[in-house]
Amino acid sequence: MALKNQYLIDLLETVKKRNAGEPEFIQAVTEVFMCLEPVVEKRPDLVEAGVFERIVEPERQIIFRVPWVDDNGKVQVNRGFRIQFNSAIGPYKGGLRLHPSVYSGIIKFLGFEQIFKNSLTTLPMGGGKGGSDFDPKGKSDGEVMRFCQSFMTELCKHIGPDCDVPAGDIGTGAREIGYMFGQYKRIRNEWSGVLTGKGLTYGGSLARTEATGFGLCYFTEEMLKANGKSFKDQTVVISGSGNVAIYATKKATEFGAKVVALSDSNGYIYDPDGIDLPVVQQIKEVERGRIKEYVDRTSHKNATYTEGCSGIWSIKCDIALPCATQNEIDADSAKKLAANGCYAVSEGANMPSTPEAIDVYFENKMLYGPAKAANAGGVATSGLEMSQNSERLSWTFEEVDAKLHGIMKEIFKSCDEAAKEFGMEGNYMAGANIAGFLKVAEAMKAQGCV
Ligand SMILES: NC(=O)C1=CN([C@@H]2O[C@H](COP(=O)(O)OP(=O)(O)OC[C@H]3O[C@@H](n4cnc5c(N)ncnc54)[C@H](OP(=O)(O)O)[C@@H]3O)[C@@H](O)[C@H]2O)C=CC1
Ligand SMILES: O=C(O)CCC(=O)C(=O)O
After folding, report:
1. In this protein, which residues make up the domain named Glutamate/phenylalanine/leucine/valine/L-tryptophan dehydrogenase C-terminal (predicted)?
2. Which of 39, 255, 278, 286 is 20 to 30 A (C-alpha) from 144?
3. Which atom of ligand 2 is nearest to the CA of 169?
4. Does residue 232 have an active-site annotation?
5. Helices (DSSP H) in 287-396: which residue ranges?
6. How far apart are CA 5 and CA 13, in angstroms?
7. Which of 136, 157, 190 is the last residue of a domain?
8. Domain containing residue 24
9. ipTM value
């Protein structure tokens, strides 16, 4: 697919020049622009208000030094990032990624996607994202703590419960959030809901741990239902074996599907008898081990491990849920999925499909649940954590889960309706981008040229 609208073509050229060397961000903007072409035609008032030019430029970007001392007494230096992309509809909100691949282009694409995702949740949250090229893998708890304290010593100057509320993402789980929260509280001498994904003993919300994976399945079930299908008795392949993948496996299994594969950045497991989730949880959540250990630890005799990640998409399945990282499904992998009869791809990870892979989904009439809608359950539940912190109350697991389920149903409905309204029925990617954009755009127009 290529852009046809000259105004958007020219604007994309400007974005490319201004953000040279950041291909992930250009990829994210290109996708959004392709979906917004009919909006440009229908809403000249938004063009007049400069909304398109303003929405692709972050309100603020912070880059900082993160020095810390390792277990050998050696000084290490990482780079920290926080991008405060858009605050039109609420305080900046989005996770912190700790992974060696992190640089400004990754944080910028994630922050940009977050604007539309957060808008789709219906909650008042703007878009932001952050992180560092620090790799928590293989580090001791002491090293992770010293890094997190140093990171927060700078970050705390720029965030706050009514300004910017970070959370977890790849490499940032409950341990890291705990260390960062402790440091924020110590420096600012205040207890506030400045981070979400907190532990349950200090203001965290029940069901936040499960929320992204559960939400992905709630959204996917709605998409399947609208097309006369369901998870029941379907074979599912899920990539990754982190927070999102684990709870997507749990909910898909509860919905009656059989999940047969999971992966990490070294390789993938295939278990034709269905993934033995408690074993995966022990290895990944408790021991921080590698997925290949599964084969020796499960009683399922037919389980196998294969080195390398992309082979996971050659496994025959009905539904694929990529839950690891960006651009993990390319055109070749998408073609293998289609050739093996996979009819639905729904994204737990952020931007896991390349543009060429998305073309393959549409050419093969596969159902496609785009990340900014399908994985919005995590941030939605973070929004619910913020509400509980403000109220000084804690809701039960069932209450939070029911609200999450309701939000995911509404997100599917908005995507479906926007796609229909703008003449692209069944294209939930277009629907998600249009519905997410319109709310933010109206707010930006109403607030004047800021
Ligand atoms: N956590 C949340 O609430 C939300 C997360 N997301 C997105 O979901 C995805 C997964 O996040 P989450 O589960 O939280 O992260 P985790 O750190 O818990 O798990 C990440 C998983 O993905 C694998 N992975 C990471 N990088 C790569 C890579 N380059 N190639 C192959 N596999 C890789 C990891 O393997 P290994 O252990 O080997 O690194 C691990 O299995 C990300 O795209 C994130 O942005 C989206 C919405 C909310
Ligand atoms: O819960 C949050 O605030 C962050 C979630 C997130 O980073 C994401 O949706 O990608």
Report:
1. 205-448
2. 278
3. 7
4. no
5. 294-297, 331-339, 355-363, 371-374, 377-391
6. 13
7. 190
8. 1-57+433-450
9. 0.98
